[in-house]
Amino acid sequence: MKRIAIFASGSGTNAEAIARYFEGNTEIEVTCVLSNRANAGVHQRMQAFGIPTYTYAKEVWSEAHPIVEVLQKHNIDLVVLAGFMRKIEQPLTTAYAGRIVNIHPSLLPLHGGPGMYGHHVHEAVLADGDTESGITIHYVDEQIDGGEIIFQAKCEVLPDDTPDTLANRIHVLEHRHFPQVIEGVLQG
Ligand code: GAR
Questions:
Q1: C-alpha distances in angstroms, 23 versus 65, 85, 105, 155, 181?
Q2: Which residues are catalytic?
Q3: pTM higher than 0.85 for the full model?
Q4: Range of the structural domain that residue 150 is part of
């Protein structure tokens, strides 16, 4: 059995799509969800799947080695960042090098880096007048949004889009592709 830990800070629609995709799978399971926010929607979404969720304070995330211990205790093979709004620090990046993937709601390297997350990304896409956007799934290294790209998918940006309508279109792409890309990574 390959074991996934999801890190999530927000609503958790991607975590839910991943949990649903692997539900009943005999080779891959979502073992747990780790969050930095006790009131994030992801906690409630995971209840329906019986997946335990844990919240850690920001000091724990900055130190990171307690997180490595949790992952090792659960025999985690792959860490999946699904709307996780904190930088991944050492020694986590080294302990899980090549085994952490992130989803970003733009076509990296466009609209990535510090401060670029969630609606900020969609606002930047609209402000720049881009005619297309999309999603990027990539490995996580020391640089924010800088790791090797695994997969990208595009969608159009419409003239009357708002950050919300664009975010909805991006979410559809994310839910369709992220679980399958994770499966592909785990199957090598
Ligand atoms: C997703 O669109 C994800 O790409 C984005 O946050 C959203 C989380 O939605 N991640 C980032 O911006 C990371 N830089 P969700 O909580 O409904 O899955």
A1: 29, 25, 25, 28, 16
A2: 104
A3: yes
A4: 2-109+135-154+171-187
* Domain presence at residue 123: no
Instruction: Indicate which residue's Cα is closest to atom 7 of ligand 1.
Output: 83
Task: Name the average pLDDT for the chain.
Answer: 97
DSSP 14-70: HHHHHHHHHTT-SSEEEEEEEES-TT-THHHHHHTTT--EEE--HHHHHH-HHHHHH
Residues 153-184 pLDDT 10s: 999 999 999 999 999 999 999 999 999 999 99
- CA-121 nearest atom, ligand 1: 12
Establish if 164 belongs to a structural domain: no
**Which band of pLDDT confidence, cut at 50, 70 and 90, is reported for residue 142?**
confident
CB-based contact 111:149 (threshold 8 Å): no
How many structural domains comprise the chain?
Answer: 1
Q: What is the pLDDT of residues 89-101, one digit of tens each?
A: 999 999 999 999 9
> Whose Cα sits closest to atom 1 in ligand 1?
83
Distances (CA, A) of 107 to 40, 122, 153, 167, 178: 26, 11, 8, 13, 14
